[in-house]
Structures are given as C-alpha cells and as structure tokens.
Design goal:
The chain has 196 residues and is an alpha+beta fold. It is built from two helices and six strands. Strand 4 and strand 5 form a beta hairpin. Helix 1 packs antiparallel against helix 2. The longest helix is centred in the first third of the chain and has 111 residues.
C-alpha cells in the first residue's frame, strides 16, 4: 500500500471514530432529556399506580377474608348436618328395635311364670323373626357362606381343613360366625372354614 492510501484510510478511520463518538454523545443526550421528561411524568404516575395498587390490595384482602369466613361457615354447617343425620338415623333404628325389646320383656315374664318349654321356644322364635324383619327393613342382610366358593370380598377364612368331598375344595365347609351386609356394603365378614 502506498503512503497516500494509508493516510486516506487513517483519515477515514478517524472520521468514523469521530462520527461514532458524536452519535453516542447525541444518543446519550437524547436519553438524558427523555429520562428527565419521564421522571417528571412518572413520579405522578407512580403515585397514582401505588394508590391504585393499595386499593386493589385492600379489596383482595377483604375478598379473601370473606371467602375464608364463608368456607369456615360452610364446613361447620355440613359437619353439623352430618352429625344430625347420624343422630336421626340411629334414633330411627333404635325406635324400631323398641318393639323387639318389649317382646323380650314379655318373654322374661313368661319364663318366670311358665314351665312349658315348647311354648317358650315358640315365643323366642317369634321374637327372633321379628328382630330379623326389623333389621332387614333397615337394609341388613346376611351373607350366605355354606357351600359357596370362598370369596375374600365376603368371607374371612379362620382355618383350612381337608375337603370332605372333591366338590368342596376351595369352598366354605362351615360358617363359624355369620356375616352381614348393610345395603350391599359388608359390615361384618363371615368367619368360615375352607376346604382344601
């Protein structure tokens, strides 16, 4: 490269640097002017925004407290309703069993006065039938077990014994304690002996 070209390139570089510096200075000045304008505007805007946000915070806090109180009242009300339902359900069952209790009282008196075993046995059978009927009306049913296939949904195996016959393998051979369901829900499993 010749010296003239080098000088020309040097001058161009210096012009570029100078123009870049001038541009940077202009940009900084413009930004500074804009910031000054914005600062005067934003201080008022900031105060408005802060007061709006404070009002919103108070409003949301009030809504939150009201919602929390409503939920607490709802929870207490439903708990009270459940307790009343349980009380009324047990009251209904006990009321229906009072008839059977009266029969037992009469049976006790009869046992004290009579020596006729056959009559007393018939009276006891009648009371038992009445009790079963009252409980069935309330949704209670017994679980059949003897001769049925062993089913863990309804039966609880106490022990296993060798099956007396081939067809009793895996089936209930004997029921030790009867099981009961209340409207399709098992409330007591049948305790059974299973053949193997």
């Amino acid at each position: 490269m010749t010296k003239a070209k080098k000088d020309e390139q040097k001058t161009e570089n210096q012009d570029n640097i100078t123009s870049q510096e001038a541009f940077a200075e202009n940009t900084e000045q413009t930004c500074a002017d804009t910031d000054t304008d914005n600062m005067s505007e934003t201080s008022d805007d900031k105060e408005d925004k802060v007061s709006d946000m404070s009002a919103q915070i108070v409003e949301w806090k009030d809504k939150y407290l009201r919602l929390q109180a409503e939920f607490d009242n709802y929870r207490k009300r439903t708990l009270k309703e459940k307790m009343e339902l349980i009380d009324s359900a047990s009251k209904d069952v006990i009321k229906s069993l009072l008839v059977v209790l009266d029969d037992f009282d009469r049976a006790e008196e009869a046992f004290a006065k009579s020596d006729n075993i056959e009559t007393l046995r018939e009276g006891l059978d009648l009371i038992h039938t009445k009790l079963v009927k009252v409980l069935e009306d309330k949704g209670l049913s017994s679980i059949e077990a003897d001769g049925e296939m062993f089913d863990t949904d309804y039966h609880e195996a106490i022990t296993k014994i060798p099956a007396p016959s081939e067809e009793l393998k895996g089936k209930v051979v004997d029921t030790v304690e009867k099981g009961y369901k209340l409207k399709d829900k098992v409330i007591r499993y049948s305790k059974v002996v299973v053949g193997e």
